[in-house]
Every structure is written in structure tokens, then in C-alpha cells.
Amino acid sequence: xxxxxxxxxxxxxxxxxxxxxxxxxxxxxxxxxxxxxxxxxxxxxxxxxxxxxxxxxxxxxxxxxxxxxxxxxxxxxxxxxxxxxxxxxxxxxxxxxxxxxxxxxxxxxxxxxxxxxxxxxxxxxxxxxxxxxxxxxxxxxxxxxxxxxxxxxxxxxxxxxxxxxxxxxxxxxxxxxxxxx
Length: 181
Fold this sequence. Notes:
Blueprint: H1 4-15, H2 17-22, H3 29-32, H4 50-59, H5 63-96, H6 104-136, H7 139-169
Helix pairs in contact: 1-6, 1-7, 5-6
């Protein structure tokens, strides 16, 4: 059980990653143009292509597994939509506060407490989704998923290392030095 949980966690990030982008009704192509990120990604929800199809193929998910996975992710999507909306509203409230106000610290603390509670609910919802998806996989599929996630982690670590190097070249300020709040 301990060994397989990281696999399920990783799979949710891979398969459920689109869930985050779609939670507020947005598709992934809103930010990167009509073709999606680097022209490869499609909207997971209602799509025959995209990341879900890629992972289904790589893991050799059966039709039954695919149907059950879609149901799991659809339920999770419906659960996450209001949480993401609430998170966005709290962020907007925080930005709208006047730092010169006498009640500023108290209001920030209230918003921070609400965001903490909201984050806990979101983490628990994601964990439940990961667990449900994990239960669909065979031991062979879990092993394959673990292999895929290991490769993805190496690529992500490499990107982070390069990002850190770029930050160092720009005195820790990134390439957009002149930006201010």
C-alpha cells in the first residue's frame, strides 16, 4: 500500500492535471492558443485526444477502466469547481483590501484562515480521486505508471534546475526586473 500510493498520487497529477485547468470551466487552450500547450494538448473534458487519451494508451486501460476513470474525474471536476471559484474569490478579496485600513491585519488573517481550510478540502478531494483511480489499475499498470512518473519527475526537475539557473543570472529577480505591484 505504501509503495503504490505515490504511484496513484503521480497518476492523479498526470491524469487529473487537466481537472485543475478545467475546474472553472476554462480549457487548457485559453492560455496557449487554440492548439493547446505546444500544440499537443486538448481539453480533457469531452475530448477523444489529449492527456487522458495518451495515458489511457500508455497504460493500456480497458474500455471499462476508461469509462470508470472518466466517471471518477467527472465527479472530481464537479466537486472541485466550487472550490476553485471560492479560492479565486478569496484571492480577489485579499487583493482588494486596503493595506492602510485599521482592520487590514484582521481581514488578512480571516482570509488566510479560510484559504487554509479550503486548501485542506482541496487536498482531501484530490487524494480521494487519486485513491479511486489507483483502485482501477492492475499491478502491471501501476508499474508502468510509476515508470512514466519517474520520467516526468526527471524532466520537471531538469526544468526547475534550468529555471533556477535563469533566476541566478538575473540576480534572483527573473527576466522581468522592472515589474512592480
